[in-house]
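Board notes (copied after class):
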Amino acid sequence: MAGKKGLGRGLQALIPEYREEEAQGVETVQIDKIFPNQYQPRKHFDEESLRELADSIKEHGIVQPLVVRRQGTGYQLVAGERRWRAAKIAGLKEVPVIIRDLDDLQVMEIALIENLQREDLNPIEEAKAYKTLMEQFNLTQEEIAKKIGKSRSVIANSIRLLNLDDRVQEMLIEGKITVGHAKVILSITSKTLQYEAAKKIVEDGLNVRETEKLVKTLLSRSEKTKEKRKDKRIDVHIREIEDNLCSLLGTKVQILQKGKDRGIIQIEYYGEEDLTRILDIIYGFEK
């Protein structure tokens, strides 16, 4: 897999690959004493795949030990959560483990790199993992990029996916839309329009190029709607001023807009006497 080469130090640099000669370092612990890693970025596990692995474990056992660290009276998983889940399904009471002394950041790194190397994370899980590294461990995007061997722009673009509407994120997780679709949808700031675009993509089976056209249409329509609302608010305000002037001058008054900040006020009069009356009212305000 081409992407594995570039993952920073790689998993083996953080957890040396298990070898037969290391067997004396493997311990057996009760499966119920092991609990999941809170920093595990992977949240979705395919049930069918787990059952298949459980069948394999029943027949061959766990070939590669889990990696854990001691916490209290139990053990926190560092690597191998899929094997641990499958072992529970298989009904194992005890599992082989390698116990490591690791801090929280190392645990998070290992969990993230393990899943990235195996391409086990969906795009949203990956984005949330990067965000956790930034928020909980105060790492910059540049520092994360160096640790996992990716460019800073890749990290930034991944995190941007979290700006999608929650419903659109779920579609991405379920594979109904691709990351390519999602990147185009991100040009829409309205969550409602994002969801509308995503639904249209799924319903019509749109590709990325077609999605670009769809988004352009939606944005144009949204802009026109905003302008109409704005014009409507201006119209209401202008009509109110016209009514006030009509009442004040006792004649028909029209305000004609000639642009954003320009216009003409038309005051009708019916004879010289009516004009004098109107002018007296206007001049009266100057005194």
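Comment from the instructor: The radius of gyration is 33 Å. Residues 2-118 form a domain with the Conserved hypothetical protein from pyrococcus furiosus pfu- 392566-001, ParB domain fold (CATH 3.90.1530.30).
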